[in-house]
Amino acid sequence: MRVPFLFVAGGIALLTGCQTLDSQQTSERIPAKPVAVEKVAQKPIEPEVVEVVEITDIWQRIRLNLQMEIPDEKLVRQYRDWYIKHPQHLERVSERATPFMYLIVDEIEKRNLPIELALLPIVESAFDPFAYSHGAASGLWQFTSPMARHFGLQMNWWYDGRRDVPAATTAALDMLEYLHGKTGQNWLYAIAAYNTGEGRVINAAKRNKKKGISTDFFSLNLPRETERYVPQLLALADVIKNADKYGIKLTPISNEPQIEVVDIGSQIDLALAADIAEMTTSELHKLNPGFNRWATAPEGPHKLVLPIDKADAFKLALNKTNTTERLNWERYKIKSGDSLGLIAKRYRTTVSALKAVNDINGNTIVAGKFLLIPVAAKDLDEYLLSADQRLARQQNKARGASKITYKVKSGDSLWKIAKQHKVKIAQLASWNSMAPKDSLQIGQKLVIWSGTATSKSGLSEVMRTVNYKVRSGDSLARIASKFNVSVNDLVRWNSLEKSKYLQPGQMLKLYVDMTKVRT
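Predicted structure:
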């Protein structure tokens, strides 16, 4: 109706103009008989109806905002086919991403960055905040130590900011924005630089430009890992965007905040914090993987990530808890020959923590005086996600017929030890939760798996994984004695509580040297 209306209105205007011109030029002319113009009723223009769709799933929110072009490149096709053939991978990733994906997407949108960046943790770590790579990179966003420190993440004995998801997300997006600026506002370049460094990407583009050939990402000569890194992200974006088409089902993630970062003000035992939040210690630690030990870091950050539905009650209960009650304390009498370093090592804390608690300047302590030492509220074996417990589980996984424990000596290196025991450096590093380039500490204990090994008794140590069915009358002590393992190991391997009774028929997993089993 709009075109006819505009046409009629134009005709009227033209006719009116002609009449005015005639009346001015021929004043004596008899006026023409007025022409009756039928008035056309204008139909009201109905506003266009826009259907508002409520987005309830964070994957849908991501899908609607994916914009990067997906090129028809061989590597993109290969990675797309892999994701389609392994749908269980994205299922697991979606479950791991549930607590954190809303936070990541929200921060990306606040910065007006490409939503594709929310998929980088899938490529980097499969959304495992405890992931540790061969290149000594750690966390969801796989930061190396130098880059982590450069972008403001703290790392010490108590805490590793690379695994703190909110903190590492901020640092990662800061880094990506920096790289985007350094690489000429080219997002594929920036993503490649996140993997290999901006210098390599910029120099590769300069070489192509000098040769007069294309400088698009797929034409650059980059390290093999980087050449595959960007195609993998693009393939993933294509699979996420067209999940229905490819038959991929992603576990829905509610499009609303899942977690809240709570400022707790001072150090707290994670077991106590978990009790206050009405969670298990492991549940709390999964949301706070940045903490290496049984408590938050003495000097901060003093923040805890909590499920959003528990945060308010936690804050109210915490406010009623005196800060001196947030840790257990032991009064230690200093002995002759003691040093702060020795005491800190014995109590699994740090010299700086001892100094802060006891208001000590310098390193001098006096025999006969007392120190207050923070100690864990529960047995250390119950902090299953602490660095020590994760290392113990990794080292206890059966990787061969025999296992030896090696104590690092002065002059040792992973290369030297691996060569001496005829194993690969990558294997040795993996068995001990290390990267091949990690440095060793004198006295550090490493496990080495091989086909055969000789124990101090002269017998071959044969490690096996044993699934044991609890019988009537069994106890932890009895089973531990039978298989010559410790009760603490039994508890740790099976996530048990010492105070709970075993039930007949219950299945336990044990890692056993079969040469030491009682017959």
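Summary: Confidence is low (pLDDT under 50) at residues 1-37, 452-462.
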